[in-house]
Amino acid sequence: MKNIVLKKLKVIGATKSDAEIVFGENLTIISGASDTGKSYIFQTIYYLLGSDTPPKEGIEEANGYTHAFLELTLNSTPLVIERDLKGGKASLYYTTLSDVFNSNPASTKVSASARGNDNLSNRILGPLKMDGVNLLLNSNTGKKGIARLSDFKNILFLSEEQIVTDKSPFRTGQRGDILRENSLLKFILTGKDFADIDLQDFPKLKAGLETRIQQLNELIEEDSTKVSEYSQELIDNNIEASFFNNEISALENTLTTTRDEMESIIDEVNSQKSLLQKERSEHIALNELLSRFQLLKKQYKIDIQRLEHLIEANDIFSDLKPLFCPYCEQEILTGGHNNCGEYNSEVYNNALNVELSKTQSLLNDLAPTLNDIEQKILDKTSNINSINNKILEYNTLLLTVREQFKKLNDKILKARSFHRIIIDRDTLQLRINVFKDRVEKLNNDLQAKKDSNKSTKASDYTKVDESKILKIENTLSDFFTFLKFHEENETRFDKQTADISIGGKKKGSFGKGKRSIANAVATLGLISASKELQTLPRLLILDSPLTTYTGVKRKEGDKIVQPKDLQMRFFKLLIDKSSDIQIIVFDNEEPEENFTHDKLKTIKFTGTKDFGRYGFFPVD
Amino acid sequence: MNKGFTVDNIFNSPLEIGLRCLIILKTFNDRVLNIQDIINLDYLTLHLKDFNEDLESVHPDIPYRSGEISVKRIVCQRGLQLMLSKGLITKNFNEKGICYEITSIGTLFVDYISNSYHVKLQEFCLMLYKEVGSMTEEQINEYITSNINEWGSEFINDSYLDDYLKL
To answer: Do B84 and A326 touch (CB under 8 A)?
Structure first.
C-alpha cells in the first residue's frame, strides 16, 4: 500500500487563473518541452513539503502566482498543504482541495521548517510512523538527531542536478552530513535507528578522566609533601617507629607507678597532718594542765609562805596582851568575858604547822606530776617536731615525685604526638599508594578509550548487515538486468561511498545519461527494499532521468534509427514498481504513442498554445 | 567557842587579814580608811597585776579570785577587831563611817616581823600606794567595781583540757 499519495498541485494568484495538475496514483509522466513548468512543479512540490526555498521564478508565466496548494493523502487521510510562495508557515487542511476552495474549512498553521514540536515535517512523518527516527550525528560525542522530512526528501526527490551525479544519489554531498545520511540508510535498510544506542561522548569522557587523574595527582603530591615533612620531623627528633609502642607502654606504666607513689605520699602526709592536729591539741591541753599545776604550785608555795608568816606572826601576836576580847569585846581581866571563842593561839599554831606540813607535802607530791606533764609536753613537742619534719620530708619528696610525674607525662605526651605523626604518615602513605593505583587504572582506561575511539570509525556505527546489503544488491541487479543496462548487470553496493557498481563498473564511470538512469533505478531499488520494513515514504519524484540519455544509433535497413529501448524498458520498470510506489517523472522524453498502461498517466506539455496543454500555467 | 581549824579558816583568818590590814594602814597612814577601803586595798596589794599588768602579784592569779572581795568583809571585820583587841589599831567615827588607824605599837609590830612574805607584803603595798597615787578611795572602789568580772576569767583553753582529760 502506498503510504503517501500526491493528488493535486495548484497555484493561485489574485490576478491569475489557477494553475493545477492532477497526479496519477501510480506512475505519472509529465513530459514536454523546456520552460513549460515541469521543473517548477517539481520545485513547488518540494517547497510545499517543507523547504526554505520557494520555486524559482524562472518562467515568466509564474509571475503573479502567490499561493500554492498540494493535496495528498497520508495513509489515506486527506491533507492539503498551503503556503505563500514567498515563504513562511504552512497552513494545513485535513480535507480535499475542492473542499478547501468551496467550504473554507479550518486550517492549522505550522512551521514549514523542522523547528518547534509542531511542524510540517512531524505532521507528515507522524502518520507515516517515520517521526522520531534517531540518527547519529557525531560518533565522537554520540550526538543524535531526529530524522526530518527533508532527510527523506533528499532520497525521494532527484532534481535534474542531482539525478546526473556521479556520486551516490543518497548523499547530498555535504561532508558533515555523511554520518547522518549513513544513519538514515541504515534505518531504511534495517529498520533500526540509533534511539537505543548510547555512544559515550569521548571528548567529555577524556576531559573527565584527565580531570580526575589531575586531581588525584595533586592529592598525591600534597600527601607526599606531608609524608616528607613528617618523616623529617621524626628524623630530627631521632624517633624510631619500631620501639615506639613499647616505649609508650613502659612510660605509661612508670607514670601509673609514680601516680600511685604520689597518692601514697599524699595519704601519708594527710595522715601525719591528722596526727599532728591531735598532738597539737594534746600539746595545748598539756600546756593548759601544766599552767594550772604551776598555778597550784605557786599557790602551795605562797600558802607555805603565808603559813610561815602566820606562825611567826602568831607567835609574836600571842605575846601581846589583849586589851579586850575581840569576840565579845569585853575586857578579859575585869570579867564579863564569857570565854566566847577566845582566840587560842596554840591551837592555831598547831593547825598552822599541820597545814604547813600538809602543804609542803602537797608541793612535793606535785613535783613529779609537774615533771611528768613537762616531760609529756616535751615528748609532745618532740613528736610535733618529728611529725612536722616528716611532713616536710614527705612534701619535699612529693615535690620531687610530682616533678618526675610531670616530666614523665610530658614525655608520654611527646611520645604520643610522635606516635600520632607516625600513624598519620603511614596512613597517608597507604593513601598515596591507593591513589597511584587509581591513577594507573584511570590512565589505562583513558588509553583504552583513546585506542577504542581511534579504531572505531563512524562508519562502524552505521554498518549494515551483509544480508541487507545483499538484498538491495539483488534487487538492483534484477532491475538493471531487466533494463539490460550494461553487459553485466550484477550490482554491488559500496558501503563506503553508498554508491553502486553495475557489472563491475562504478556508476560514476558511466556517462551522464546512464548515470541518470542508474541513480533513478538505485533510488527505486532502495524504496523497493524498504517495502517490508516500511522505512521510507513510498514516493519517488524524478526530474529528467532520461533527458540526457541518448541511445546508440543503429541502422535499420536504410534508416538510421535511434532506439529508445532503454527508455521504454525504464518506463516499464517504473510502471511495474508503481503498484506500491507513487512515481512522478518530469522529463523531456516521453513514452511512445502506443505506450499506454492503466497505471500510467501521461501529461504532455506542448509548449504551444495551438494544441494540447501548453504547460503547467494556463494561457489566456 | 573554839572552832576547829580547817583550811577555810587557817588562811584569810582574822589574824592573817588583820596583819595585812596593819600593813595597809601603816602604808596608807595619810588616808582615812574604812573597812571597804581596806578590803579593796588588800585585794589590790595581793593582786597588783590586776591594777597594772606590768607588775607582779603576791598571790597567784587563780580563777575567780575576784570573788574573795565579796566574801572577805566579815573576816576583815574580825581581823580588825583582833588588831583592835591588841591595841595595834584604833577606830574612829567620821563622815566615812567607822575608819581605822594604825597605832605606834601597831607600826612597831609590823616592823618587828621579819618573815619574807611579810616583807614582800609591805613592798607590794608600798608599790600599790605609789600606783594609786592621788586616786581617792571612791575612785579605787569604782575601778574595782568596773573590773571585778574580768579578774580571774583568764582560762581560755578549757575545751582542750576537757578533751584531754576525757581521753
So the answer is: yes
